[in-house]
Amino acid sequence: MSGEPKILRDVLLASGRRVKLYRRIVEADGKTFEKDLVVFGSSVVIVPVLGDGRIVFVRQWRASIAGWVLELPAGRVEPREDLLEAASRELVEETGFRAGSLSVLGSFYVAPGYSDEVISVVRADGLVEGQPRPEEGEVLRTVFMRPEEYLGLLGKETLDLKSIAGVLLYMSTG
Amino acid sequence: MSGEPKILRDVLLASGRRVKLYRRIVEADGKTFEKDLVVFGSSVVIVPVLGDGRIVFVRQWRASIAGWVLELPAGRVEPREDLLEAASRELVEETGFRAGSLSVLGSFYVAPGYSDEVISVVRADGLVEGQPRPEEGEVLRTVFMRPEEYLGLLGKETLDLKSIAGVLLYMSTG
User: Fold this and answer.
1) Nearest to residue A37, comparing CAs of A12, A6, A16?
2) Do the chains contact at B114 and A151, CB–CB below 8 Å?
3) Is the dihedral of CA B157, B163, B164, B167 positive or negative?
4) Chain A interface mutation, best of B17, B115, B122, B163, highest count of A Cβ atoms under 10 Å
5) A83, CA 20 to 30 Å: which among A50, A77, A122, B78?
C-alpha cells in the first residue's frame, strides 16, 4: 500500500427521486478500480426527549422493505437548509412537536462503502405538542417510549441503525 | 391514513458494481408515489474484543467521501453465505484476526428511506492474530483502541454510523 488513492472521475449511471447512482473510478497503487457511489447528501435524526424521560419515536411504513420500522424522526437536510432548521422541520412534520432547544450529539457517515450520506444526531428538548403534517406518501404513527423499552425491542421489532445509534448516544451522554 | 401501502412495481434504473438502483412505485391512500430503492442486501459489522478490553478498528480510505474513516471491520454477506461466516471472513481479511467465538448483538436497517441494506452487529472474542489480506482496492490500517477512546474522537475524526452503533451496543451489553 503506497500513498493515498486518487479519484479519476465519476460517471452518472442514473438519477432517482432523491439519490443519484455513479460509478466512481479510483486509482490505488497504480491500478484503477470501480466503486459504487450513491449521492444523497446530509440528513438529521432527532432524539426528542419529553419532560418525563420518554422519547418520541415514529413507526413508519417503508417502501424499501415493504414493512414497518420503529425509528426516531429523521429526514434530509434540503439544499441551503441549516442542520438545526432541518431537524426542527422534520420533527414538526413527523410528530407535531416543536423543540425548545436543539443540540448536535455527533455526525456520522451512514454507509461509507457506497454512499456519501452523512447524518447528524440532534437532541431535542423543551417539546411542545402540535399536529403532525407528514409529506404525501409518508405513512407513520407517533410512539412514546423510554429508551430502555426501545432497547428491549431488539430482536423483536424491526429497528434501524440511525435510531439505535441515536438512542444509545443519547443514553451515553446523559 | 387508511390501511397499508402496496408495492405496484419496481423499475431498474441502473446496476452498479454491488448496488442496483430501482424506482419503486407504491400505492398509498389511492394515490401512487415513486420511491428510490437501492438494493444492496445484508452486511455485517464486527466488534472484535481483545483480552485487554481494546477493540480492533480499521482506518479505511473510502472512495465515496475521498477520505479516511475510522470504522469497525465490516463487509457484505455474499449470496449463500452464512452471517457468522461472513463476519469471520471479513474480520480475517481486514484485520488478520481469527475469532474464537462470535455472537450477534442485533440487526438493523441501514437507511430504510431508500435502501434495503440490513446490517448485523457481531461481537468477536477469543481473537488470534494473523496477517490481514484486504481485497484489491481496499486501503486500510488496523487500529487498537478502548471503546472510551473511540467515543472521545467524536467531532474530532471522521466516524460512521455502524461503528458508533456497534461500539455503543457492545458497551451497553457488557
Assistant:
1) A12
2) no
3) negative
4) B115
5) A50
Bridge partners of residue B33, in order along the sequence: B26
Residue of B nearest to A37 (CA): B64
Any idea which residue has 407517533 for its cell? A142
What is the Cβ-side half-sphere exposure of residue B8, based on CA atoms within 13 angstroms? 12
Which pairs count as long-range contacts for B143-148, CB under 8 Å and 24+ apart, including other chains? B143/B56, B143/B57, B143/B58, B143/B59, B143/B70, B144/B50, B144/B54, B144/B55, B144/B56, B144/B57, B145/B54, B145/B55, B145/B57, B146/B53, B146/B54, B146/B55, B147/B55, B147/B171
Q: Which distant-in-sequence residues (6+ apart) come within 8 Å of A30 by Cβ?
A: none
Q: What is the ipTM of this complex?
A: 0.95
CA distance B92 to chain A (A): 18
**Alpha carbons B92 and B126: distance in angstroms, whole number:** 13
Look at B21 and A19 and tell me if their CB atoms are within 8 Å.
Answer: yes
In a 3-state reduction of DSSP, which class is residue A66? Answer: coil
Which residues in chain B have Cβ-Cβ distances shorter than 8 Å to A172? 151, 168, 171
pLDDT in tens, B128-158: 999 888 888 788 999 999 999 999 999 999 9
B7-to-A135, B42, B125 alpha-carbon distances in Å: 18, 21, 42
The overall pTM is greater than 0.90: yes
Which residues are registered as beta bridge partners of A6? A27
